[in-house]
Amino acid sequence: MKSSSLQKRLGLGLTLGMTLLWLGATVGAWLVVQHELNEAFDSALEETAQRILPLAALEISNREEPRDAQHIATLKMHKEYLTYLVRDANGEILMQSHDANPKIFNKRPSEGFSTTKKYRLYGASAMRGTLFIEIAEPLGHRREAAREALFALLLPLLALIPISLLGTWVFVRISLRSVLAYRRAVEARGVGDLSAINVAQLPAEIDPLADAVNHLLERLRKALEAERSFTANSAHELRTPLAATLAQIQRLRQEAPEGPLRVRAAKIENSLRDLARLSEKLMQLAKAEGGGLLPEAPQDLIPLLAHVVDEWNHSSGHRIELQLPTQASVYSAIDPDAFGILLRNVIENALKYGAADQPINVSLTNQALLRVTNGGPTVPESALQQLTDRFVRGNNQASGSGLGLAIAKTIVQGVGASMTLTSPAKGRADGFEVSIQFCSAEAPR
Ligand SMILES: Nc1ncnc2c1ncn2[C@@H]1O[C@H](COP(=O)(O)OP(=O)(O)OP(=O)(O)O)[C@@H](O)[C@H]1O
Ligand SMILES: [Mg+2]
């Protein structure tokens, strides 16, 4: 399952929660406001009716012909907001405001509040129920007031939603900065670096996780160290008794009379030599895995290469052709001992498995690409990839332990280089080629 972003989840969750709460609060506030508005409007309506009624009663009783309906003239024509009718108990109109439309009022005058489709009405009576005033207020006004209150409450939400989204995003991003730093610290680790990862100010929720990772690293490091030191120690401890036994058997062989005893002693001597070689390779592997492959300053590969090739040429009858780069020096970060071990294993293979009548080509380019090529039978593609595994050997008669390329691969990985095996070698129909691309480095000052 794809992991989801905390930032996205918190942003959406908080914003959605806030919006819902805000909407709930808005509805509550709106209901209260509406109720209060109605109360205020009603009381104003009532007040107005109560004010007009005595005046109307006075005027009507002063008339000579009280039965005549009368429109109250206005000083200036205007649109009335409140309209009123003054009627007697039978519904006969005695007085009305100039804009009043009798159709909007109840057929018979009534007291108290009532609501029609478009108006809020209030009626009051005087002179013992013979004179009624009814006053009408259009509902549109109240509705508009309620609507505007609602808008005023909802409007901030439009701004709040993006602010909340952005705010959460930024806040979570800032809070998780140390977690990102932690991730970078883990990613930046070189191969074989199992030291504790320390990042300051991790959030309290993540801190235990980092501690647990450090504990795990520590246990892993101890386990690997134990394994390596066991290998290295055993190989080292074997060295002396092996050398002593080898010397003894050599003497035994020389002293033995010509015949089967001498042949047998020679066989034992060979087995002991193989054993000594194996223990040497195990020590090399332990060293390669033990880290410390990266030196403090980059090394010039040319003299190191020339030295190892020289050494082999002495012991192998000058079969190796060395091709150096045009540059005077090629720097790369690799421990000189490790470089020597790597090179010896690869050249040893070329001498051992390459066609005896063909030279071995060793070349280094300006870009720190090292190639070791030999002739001889090709190795099938399917077998090629497994050759770098430990104790894996090809199909051949020569003796060996199958550790050489595993040692080379471990060193190459430890210094961040890359190794490719090709067969047949590039540009020819047979043979085997090992190419190693080292990381070029600046010359140290
Ligand atoms: N230059 C080469 N030409 C042809 N085959 C090779 C070459 N280098 C390695 N191989 C094949 O790869 C196999 C593994 O090589 P590797 O160096 O790991 O082990 P080894 O040489 O058999 O033993 P060791 O190096 O431990 O003494 C070899 O057995 C051989 O078959
Ligand atoms: Mg080998």
UniProtKB/TrEMBL annotation:
Organism (species): Pseudomonas kielensis
EC number(s) per entry: 2.7.13.3
Membrane topology: Multi-pass membrane protein
Keyword Phosphoprotein: yes
Catalytic activity annotation: ATP + protein L-histidine = ADP + protein N-phospho-L-histidine
One CC-aspect GO term: plasma membrane
Compartment annotation: Membrane
Domain Histidine kinase residues, every copy: 233-442
Transmembrane segments: 12-33, 149-174
PANTHER family assigned: SENSOR HISTIDINE KINASE YKOH, SENSOR PROTEIN QSEC
InterPro entries cross-referenced by the UniProt entry: 2CSK_N (IPR013727), HAMP_dom (IPR003660), HATPase_C_sf (IPR036890), HATPase_dom (IPR003594), His_kinase_dom (IPR005467), HisK_dim/P_dom (IPR003661), HisK_dim/P_sf (IPR036097), TCS_sensor_his_kinase (IPR050428)
Residues covered by the HAMP domain: 173-225
GO MF: ATP binding; phosphorelay sensor kinase activity
Record-linked SUPFAM superfamilies: ATPase domain of HSP90 chaperone/DNA topoisomerase II/histidine kinase, Homodimeric domain of signal transducing histidine kinase
Keywords (A to Z) from UniProt: ATP-binding, Kinase, Membrane, Nucleotide-binding, Phosphoprotein, Transferase, Transmembrane, Transmembrane helix, Two-component regulatory system
Protein name: histidine kinase
EC supergroup of this enzyme: transferase
